[in-house]
Design a protein that fits this description.
Aminopept, globular, 8 strands, mainly alpha, 369 residues, disordered N terminus
Length: 369
């Protein structure tokens, strides 16, 4: 494979995808065209990781992250039974803060994301755009709703392509980058079509549990302690968002959209104040305190819940399987094939034994609404 980074064996799939979209209508075709062309543009920029590592001009910080990615790929394949293939063997340096911008939409008086349905992923609660202006133009169609556009550092093609390492994927430390690799490989290994909350909870579980096991395997104990503290801050923030969502649910039950917007403002102010106070006590929360003061709305809040809802339940099942990765991957793959009602019943039973998300097991601080 040369510097273009795109395996020719996968190019044949693209015309069939485009044909599917043409049959769905012009608007869908325009959306899929920007998605396909955006991805192919990345692939044209990709360089093999081994070439980047051999380049004497590669900054040492990037080199450390890429070496961690190489080790994480091997660990994911050999120890975690994740599907790896040739993913994350190429590198793309981007000149923007996010690779895609996701559009989330929710009614102002209901905690439910609008969904869009796609041939491969099923129905999901967002639409991704490679150009932020495209996302903003699409958002104008939902002026009566709560809208949030969030930048994403990575995305998965769910096995259609061998995804590259993006410069936006590099975390605060190489262990965080490895954790994100585990997250994306979890999507590639098992994707629950039409259930974004379970799919993201699965990937978050794999990300966190994989990072701990990987760090221990590498002997990165100081790095693991720092990573766990960052994750504890993330858990405290997610917990506070969960408290706000619980407070909003009864308020919305008897509210029109106009009433909901007015009645929720005191709760939003209380959330911002609580987050700021918590960050004053625990500086690790300051990034969230800075970025979550405004604007607040349902669409933005729901982006947090999707990633963490079933993490605790999955951790319980992992324990029941004696923390055996092949068994866990096989179990989740089978769970993904069940009807939704059966999946929910299984997860609810597991969740009853989970005191909280796996993240809060090491939580050193809590925030109260």
């Amino acid at each position: 494979m040369n510097g273009s980074g795109l395996g020719t064996r996968r190019l044949w799939r693209l015309p069939w995808l485009i044909l599917t979209v043409i049959l769905a209508g012009c608007e869908s075709f325009a959306y899929y065209w920007q998605a396909a062309s955006g991805h192919l543009s990345l692939m044209r920029q990709a360089r093999p990781v081994r070439e980047v590592l051999a380049d004497e001009h590669t900054p040492e910080a990037i080199r450390r992250h890429l070496l961690a990615v190489q080790s994480a790929r091997t660990f994911a394949r050999d120890r975690m039974s994740l599907r790896v293939d040739d993913s994350y063997t190429t590198w793309v340096a981007l000149d923007r803060p996010a690779v895609v911008w996701n559009l989330f939409v929710s009614p102002p008086n209901r905690l439910q994301l609008r969904t869009w349905c796609f041939p491969v992923a099923g129905c999901v609660g967002y639409r991704g755009y490679f150009d932020r202006m495209d996302a903003e133009m699409a958002a104008r169609r939902f002026a009566e709703d709560d809208v949030w556009i969030g930048g994403a550092s990575a995305y998965s093609t769910l096995g259609w392509f061998d995804d590259p390492v993006l410069s936006t994927m590099l975390g605060p430390a190489p262990l965080d980058t490895a954790a994100l690799i585990f997250h994306e490989l979890a999507h590639k290994t098992v994707w629950v079509k039409g259930d974004i909350t379970l799919s993201e909870s699965w990937a978050t579980f794999v990300e966190q549990s994989g990072a701990r096991a990987f760090a221990q395997d590498q002997g990165w104990l100081p790095e693991l302690m720092a990573y766990q503290r960052r994750q504890a801050a993330r858990a405290a923030f997610a917990n506070l968002v969960g408290q706000l969502i619980e407070a909003l649910e009864p308020l919305y039950a008897a509210s029109t959209p106009e009433q909901a917007r007015e009645r929720r403002e005191p709760l939003f102010r209380r959330f911002a104040q609580s987050l700021g106070d918590c960050a004053d006590r625990h500086p690790a929360l300051k990034p969230w305190a800075r970025s979550w003061q405004t604007p607040l709305n349902n669409a933005r809040l729901l982006t947090v819940r999707s990633y963490t809802r079933w993490v605790g339940a999955l951790e319980v099942q992992f324990g029941r399987l004696h923390r055996n990765w092949p068994a866990m991957v096989a179990w989740f793959g089978e769970l993904a094939t069940r009807p939704e009602a059966q999946r929910q019943a299984t997860l609810q039973e597991l969740d009853a034994h989970a005191s909280s998300s796996v993240l809060t097991n090491t939580l050193e601080f809590r925030c109260q609404l």
